[in-house]
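Hi all, long-time lurker, first post. I run a small reading group and we've been trying to get comfortable going from sequence to structure in the token notation. Rather than ask abstract questions, I figured I'd post a concrete chain and ask someone more experienced to write out its structure so we can walk through it together at our next meeting. Sequence below, copied exactly:
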Amino acid sequence: MNYFHNEWLKTNDGWYEGIQVYTPSTNNALEATNKTIKDDGTFRERHVLSRFLTIATNVINNWSVERDSSSINAKIFATEPTISLELWTLSYQWAKSTKDIICISNDSSKTYYIPARDLQSISQANLNKYKNKTWSTFNQFTKSFDI
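-- Answer (accepted) --
Happy to help. Here is the structure in token form:
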């Protein structure tokens, strides 16, 4: 939990998890594309210019064929979010809901606690349970809060 908290709640708090069917799951679409090019094209190695140009040509050809919308099992790039209107609406309603947000400040940061789901507030008992962190796995965490 310490790693998760430091890495994803403090250091990289602006990242997100993006997912689309038949594409890599990543928090950064550009990095996923970059990794695929390096892995498939062996760009992790140094090549002489002639070999590099051959590999680059093959990568471009493969990507063009794979993403041709007339091909069977084409890998189509998403140009718009694939979120349903219902989920957009629910998200908007949740964001506009009146929840009791708890903010605890210390010398260098602020920690916010926001009630999830339909809860309007967080009990002091649940806040203490979270702060004491008596779990070491995500499954233990969900069980401790009856999630």
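A couple of things your group might point at:
The beta strands are 102-105, 110-113.
The chain has two domains: 14-82, 99-144.
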